[in-house]
Design goal:
By secondary structure, the chain is of the alpha/beta class. The protein has helices spanning 6-12, 53-66, 77-85, 102-111, 127-132, 156-165, 178-181, 216-229, 235-246, 248-268, 286-292, 310-316, 346-352, 368-381, and strands at 70-74, 93-97, 118-122, 138-144, 169-173, 191-195, 209-213, 272-276, 299-304, 321-322, 332-334, 358-362. The longest helix is centred in the C-terminal third of the chain and has 21 residues, at 248-268. The structure holds pyridoxal-5'-phosphate.
Length: 385
């Protein structure tokens, strides 16, 4: 069925009901194996690593939402990335955006390098400079836009065009935007990956990863890797994600409305040195982001001026919780250089602009006045007099 709007697909997309009983939710098929009616006579499932009906419903849903050929659900965002990067061979190289999630960097820097699969940090924000980084061994590019934690924007269409000219696979980590705000396959990506732990789940209660591929050929290869390496998402967690995705539209509408107000508030505050939010017309990524995404998304990072003590700032927050992760209904704050991006060596952090003063906010769906009051109080308390 096709829908006029993604809001409907969020609720009715993929396999959204139970054929046998008419249940309006897909049941949790908590089973490891399936009866065979005779040798080689399967009813569509044989073993839950290979395929499980609850997981399959989620996989069909995310494929439809991203406009891909097939979807795959994994036990975490990093498990999804591991499966996707397993498409590469020894001697291959992948270009990565200059700020990516710390765990993505660690996966390449500390695990894939054991197999002689290498990476180069590339300024994908500048397509011309990106093209110069394409050496003969480069086989893929992994883009985050907005990139974590400086919210830098990559022109996905421009980079995908250059990448395809050189035969590269274009992978986009769409965690920060979700298909509700940005659809990378329409912009030229071959593969989309998600930490579904974040906005897709939306309630900070499940760790999950998703991958969506554009072609049948990639679908067959990822299905083989998923079954062979085994990092699959369990049935209950698949159910939780399906449940979370149903409300993605209404949650994000409020998240973004709040984030826009918080970014405007911070950008006018006399204590604030810099704000990174692609929804602000003054942001350097604003125009490109507007072309490819519905709005600026939810994530904001900022720095306080030098006469503010960030330790006091973090300890003075009462509503906004200091924690790793993002994308839940509650507002969270983190300190990238010591938390989410600590696995990136200091010299690289400095080079790409992840300063020790950088603060990252994941704005929740609470009343915006409560969020702003909390920020206001913590900023005031942290001033060094
Ligand atoms: C959290 C995150 C990941 C890793 O996902 P997990 O579910 O924690 O394994 C990857 N990319 C981005 C952008 C993230 O925020």
């Amino acid at each position: 069925m096709s829908y006029k709007g993604i809001e409907t697909a969020l609720i009715h997309g993929g396999i959204s009901t139970d054929e046998r009983t008419g249940a309006v939710n897909v049941p949790i098929y908590q089973t490891s194996t399936f009866k065979q009616d005779g040798l080689g006579k399967m009813r569509g499932y044989e073993y839950s690593r290979t395929g499980n009906p609850t997981r399959e419903a989620l996989e069909a849903l995310i494929a439809e939402l991203e406009g891909g050929y097939a979807g795959f659900a994994f036990a975490s965002g990093l498990a999804a990335e591991t499966a996707v990067l397993s498409l590469l061979n020894t001697g291959d190289r992948v270009l990565i955006s200059s700020n990516v999630y710390g765990g993505t960097f660690r996966l390449l820097d500390k695990i894939f390098n054991h197999f002689n699969i290498n990476y180069t940090i590339s300024d994908t924000e500048d397509p011309a400079s990106f093209e110069k980084d394409i050496t003969p061994d480069v086989k893929a590019v992994l883009i985050e836009s907005p990139a974590n934690p400086l919210m830098t924007i990559t022109d996905i269409r421009a980079v995908a065009e250059i990448a395809h000219k050189h035969g590269l696979l274009v992978i986009v980590d769409n965690t920060f935007m979700t298909p509700y705000l940005q659809r990378p396959i329409e912009l030229g990506a071959d593969i989309v990956v998600h930490s579904a732990t974040k906005y897709l789940g939306g309630h900070s209660d499940v760790v999950a990863g998703l991958a969506v591929v554009k072609t049948k050929e990639l679908a067959e290869r990822i299905a083989f890797i998923q079954n062979s390496t085994g990092g699959v998402l369990p049935p209950f967690d698949s159910f939780l994600l399906i449940r979370g995705i149903k409300t993605l539209g209404v949650r994000l509408d409020r998240h973004v409305e709040n984030a826009q107000k918080a970014a405007e508030y911070l950008s006018k505050h006399s204590a604030v040195k810099s704000v990174h939010y692609p929804g602000l017309p003054t942001d350097k990524g604003y125009e490109v982001n507007k072309k490819q995404a519905k709005n600026g998304g939810v994530m904001i990072s900022f720095e306080l001026k030098d006469n503010y003590d960030i330790n006091v700032f973090f300890e003075s927050l009462e509503l906004i919780t200091l924690a790793e992760s993002l994308g839940g209904v509650e507002s969270l704050v983190c300190h990238p250089s010591s938390m989410t991006h600590a696995s990136i060596p200091e010299d690289i952090r400095k080079k790409v602009g992840i300063t020790d003063g950088l603060i990252r906010l994941s704005i929740g769906i609470e009343n915006i006045d409560d969020i702003l009051e909390d920020l206001d109080r913590a900023i005031a308390k942290s001033e060094v007099k």
